[in-house]
Amino acid sequence: MSHNDIGRSMHPSASSQIESKLAARHVSFVFEPNLRIDEIRDVEGNQVRLIEHRAPKAMVDRYAEQMKGGAVFPAIVVNDRRELVDGNTRWMAAQRNNRETVAAYVCSDLSALQARSLSVELNQSHGLSMTDDEIHAFVTSAVEEGQVLDTRAYSRMTGVKASTLARWVAAKHFEMRAARDGVMPGRFGSLSDSVRAALHVAKLRAVFLEVTALAIDARVPSAQLKAIIAEANAASSEADALAVVARARELWSDEVKAITAGFKSARRKSARSALYIGGLLRFEVSDLLDVAPDKQGDTFVRMSLLRERLDGALARASVEWALPKDGEDANEPARSLELAEVR
Amino acid sequence: MDTFEFERPADLPPDNVSRVAIFDVLHEDSGANGSRAITDDELFERVIGRLRVLVPRELHLVGERSYVEEKVRACAAAGLISVNADNGRKLLALTGKRPLVRYPDGEIREYSAGLEIARERLDVDNARLRAAGFDVRRFLPSAADDPHGSTFQGLLASMREHGFLKQFPIVRYDDDVVVDGRARLRAAAVLELDVEYVKYGSERERTAARRRDNPLNRVLVAVHSNLGRLSPDAVQEVHERVAGVTRRTWDETASDLALTEAWRRSIPAEYSPVFDVNKLRFREGGEAKIQVTADNKVMLRSLVEAGGLSNYKIDVLRDYVPFERARSAHSAGRKAVFARAEDLISGIAAMQQDRLASKLKVDPEWGQIREWLVGTFGSPMG
Question: What mean pLDDT is reported for chain B?
């Protein structure tokens, strides 16, 4: 980088903020205080905002008035072919005032992609910042192009959380992988980014396809998918991993049926009660009896009521539910409980 | 959206980046028999990802399909591709004509297929090498590694006899790293000899050197400069180390380096703005010599000389006034130093104060020059 002609004093249009951003990207640049405006070229792709009016008239008017009043603006940024990278509004305001020159950072050897990501970063630090949708579009298209994004660096430049960027990136990777593996885009269109990001973690292709089908068929939330996929990834063989997904599908069979039938699956009330039952099971008998003397009467009444409810529920479940007979699968209740907790 | 057809080689169409992307996609299928025709649907599928990165706004405003169709028409109109109908499908193929691109030196040349993508891949390689702190010196043997060895002792003897040969200066990068000449540097330190580093004759040369400096370039410099003494295995080792960081083979990187060589060697011309100036008098009745632009930038040499000081006195202002270099009709074709009048007024005052505080001589002419500036342009404080 170089300040070449600006002497040791900082030129009023020089911007340490822009210079530090260029330096961080190892972009070689020259500060030119008097770049001829008629040499600047406006090419497609220089503007990162998706809005139609890239330099809003009101903003151009305001900048032009300020310039006329002697205000000095930071230098615009162009590449060494004088194609505008950043500073549309300043450039247009200078034209409005019939200026012949404008201060500019002339960057060497920027590829089109570098220029675009530099535009994104500089745009976020001044003018009308990009919306999340615009940043999302940029990030996902860069991933699609095979670029490796440093989410922390992009977070710094866009103001979007690194975790959000990582989710967008993972979701895009999921889409690309799904397309490669023959999953039609229409099938996974309804999946959220967090679900897509969770699915992308599946290691084996067969597991990826099965668990993606489950996520689509049963609309499994991302937290539950993560648990299923973590278990499948830890399995010792592909068959075991697929068995994990098959068991999960069995557990989610009601949701699959409801969704297939065109109904939105109702959230079961047991989802809440399971949490309390799980909580109670953590206490030993002695824990339940460790009650202050003044509350023992009340507690006794409530525990009795609880026992009545549970007795009633167990009596009906033994009749209504198709439970395995003794010895059929001794581990099944424990596994079901584990999975119920996951759900 | 309008498409722009260029008439003179000095102009490129504003949508050139999209035309190049389309050309590259079609070129990927080229073989010895030329370009294979692909359908417009195939082209769309293969180019849209890249266009989403390059021209997202245009795609958003026009629509992806419409935009690509429009660019296909533009490429056909420019003679880059042929479009033929085949059972209701459009078949696209290259014609042999290549798009044009502007190289960093400002020249417009024919585009080499894959150039843009190769440059981007090399950017990624360099970014990975930087992130990994790759230092080619760790993998290249130097005589300095064994100061008691015969090679280094021989070098010491030679330099004791002949001194540091200034005709072979050492390249030192901005971060003080030397990748070639480490043994001579160490020997010079042992013998307490002055080292000759490469000096750049102009700002342009310095800028060009900075522009070239990246991790891959350092690898090339280190290997090429020492090719005579390095074994093929040592070179292979360096290449494998690079490949380990870039996550692709050295051959792939070397192929991209070859493809981009002309681009990388193209150095931007030094920018040389030309100021329109008027000449003003320093004293009543004197000759109008002080060159001033319409936006109150003053050519310093003309100002200090009119004020009675020598040209070199300008240097005392360097720390106080931002300088701008430009040519004028009266600068004999060379760049002259200009500065904004308001910066000069405040800068001269600050310089005078500092020099007085440091008990340094202050030429009285500076006071007269500042008075002239205030009288001509007004005080910066109003």
Answer: 88
Identify the closest residue of chain B to A105 by CA–CA distance. Answer: B271
**Substitution target from A34, A117, A136 for chain B, most B beta carbons within 10 A:** A34
B90 plus B122 within the same structural domain: no
Average pLDDT over residues A307-316: 91
Structural domain contains residue B335: yes
**Whether residue B157 is found in the same domain as residue B250:** yes
Nearest to A116 among B54, B58, B340 (CB): B54
**Domain range enclosing B130:** 118-265
pLDDT-based confidence at residue B75 (cuts at 50, 70, 90):
very high
Nearest CA in chain B to A10: B322
Distance (Å) from the alpha carbon of B175 to chain A's nearest alpha carbon: 12
Q: Across the interface, do B50 and A145 touch by the CB < 8 Å criterion?
A: yes
**pTM for the full model?**
0.70
pLDDT of residue B65: 94
Do residues B165 and B232 share a domain?
A: yes
For residue A338, the model assigns a pLDDT of 47
Most A CBs within 10 Å: which of B324, B334, B344, as the mutation test of the A interface? B324
Domain shared by B247 and B364, yes or no: no
At A5 the pLDDT is: 44
**Subunit contact B210:A2, Cβ cutoff 8 A:** yes
Residue B6 in any domain: the answer is no
DSSP secondary structure string, A227-295? HHHHHHHHSSSHHHHHHHHHHHHHHTHHHHHHHHTTPPPPPPTHHHHHHHHHHHTTS-HHHHH---GGG
**Which helix (H) or strand (E) element contains residue A86?**
strand A84-86
Q: Which chain A residue has its CA at the smallest distance from B67's CA? A: A44
**Last residue in a domain, options B235, B265, B295:** B265
Chain-chain contact of A45 with B58 (C-beta, under 8 angstroms): yes
Fold category of A4-128 in CATH: 3.90.1530
Domain ranges of chain A: 4-128, 131-191, 201-266, 270-330
Q: For residues A39 and A82, is the Cβ–Cβ distance under 8 A?
A: yes
Are B137 and B246 contained in the same domain? yes
Separation between Cα atoms, residue A47 and residue A54, nearest integer Å: 7
CA B80 to CA B23: how far, in whole Å? 8
Residue B271 CA to residue A47 CA, distance in Å, equals 25
Looking at chain B from residue 318 to 377, which residues have their Cβ under 8 Å from any Cβ of chain A? Answer: 318-326, 340, 343, 347
DSSP-based helix, strand, coil % in chain B, nearest 5: 50, 10, 35
Domain total for chain B? Answer: 3
Q: Which long-range contacts (CB under 8 A, 24 or more apart) does A171-179 make?
A: A171/A140, A171/A196, A171/A197, A171/A200, A172/A139, A172/A140, A172/A143, A172/A144, A173/A143, A173/A200, A174/A199, A174/A200, A176/A143, A176/A144, A177/A208, A178/A212
Mutate to test the interface with B, among A36, A44, A134 (most CBs of B within 10 A): A44
Considering only the beta carbons, identify the residue of B53, B273, B320 that sits closest to A116: B53
Cβ contacts of A5 on chain B, cutoff 8 Å: 203, 323-325
Domain boundary among B88, B111, B134: B111
pLDDT band at B363 (very low <50, low <70, confident <90, very high): very high
